[in-house]
Amino acid sequence: MSFEKQFIEIYQKNILRPGSEKLLNYLLSDSSDFFTAPCSSRFHGAYEGGLAEHSVNVYNCLRDYLDRSRVTDVYNMTYSEETVAIAALLHDLCKINFYTVDFRNAKNARGEWEKVPYYTIDDDLPYGHGEKSVYIISGFMRLSREEAFAIRYHMGFSDTQDKNNVSKAFEKFPLSLALSIADMEATFYLESNTNK
Q1: Strands (E), the chain
Q2: Is 112 left (phi over 0), alpha (psi -120 to 50) or beta?
Q3: Predicted confidence (pLDDT) per residue in 178-191, tens digit
Q4: How many separate helices (H) and strands (E) can be counted in the chain?
Q5: What pLDDT digit, counting tens, does each position of 8-41 carry?
Q6: Rounded CA gap, 159 and 80, in Å?
Q7: pLDDT score of 194
Q8: What is the pTM assigned to this prediction?
């Protein structure tokens, strides 16, 4: 099953709050490149459909993390299936209509120069990373505080923002740390170029 179909199946099964159908319709529309967009310009998922693949991978990693007995029994972390799906599937909506294809010169296998495509960033809505995803989602449906903070801080300490805020978010909203771990697991273990 394609990652687009997996995404839609998980979304429709778990995300049922008011506005969710309109958000999915937007993701499927010609106004959004969500299902064809890469996840990055050079690193993980730097190919067509990489963003949808990453979103499904993060969902599976987060689901596995939250199913651990230590997480449920010791950390007392339990979240609805809807919250898990929202946080994981929608954390990178900031990358919609974010990348464009450009061309550069590179040598081919015969040592000849040729134009090759590559992804470059063209950000029409420069509103940060996680906060931009929260902003886009909020235009369609309400997020709980836990969901909003998880999406906002999913980049963890690799984000360029104030590190004290990241620590506070992880402490006050444990789903933030769990989503950050799932995002890194998907990025570095499932999608890195060295593991393909």
Answers
A1: 99-107, 113-121
A2: beta
A3: 999 999 999 999 98
A4: 9, 2
A5: 999 999 999 999 999 999 999 999 999 999 988 7
A6: 27
A7: 47
A8: 0.91
Cβ neighbors of 29 (< 8 A, separation 6 or more) are: none
Cα separation values, 187 from 24, 101, 131, 170, 174, Å = 24, 22, 20, 20, 20
Query: Tokens in use for 119?
Result: 């992804």
- At 153 the three-state DSSP class reads coil
Count of Cβ atoms closer than 10 Å to residue 80 Cβ: 10
One-letter amino acid at 56 equals V
- Per-residue tokens: 10: 């998980």
d(CA 57, CA 77): 20
Listed in sequence order, the residues at least 6 apart from 165 whose beta carbon sits closer than 8 Å to its beta carbon are 153
Looking at residue 61, its amino acid is C
User: What are the two backbone dihedrals, phi and then psi, of residue 12, each rounded to the nearest 5 degrees?
Assistant: -65, -30
Give the H/E segment covering residue 56: helix 50-66
Whether residue 125 has pLDDT greater than 70: yes
Judge contact between 89 and 48, C-beta under 8 A. no
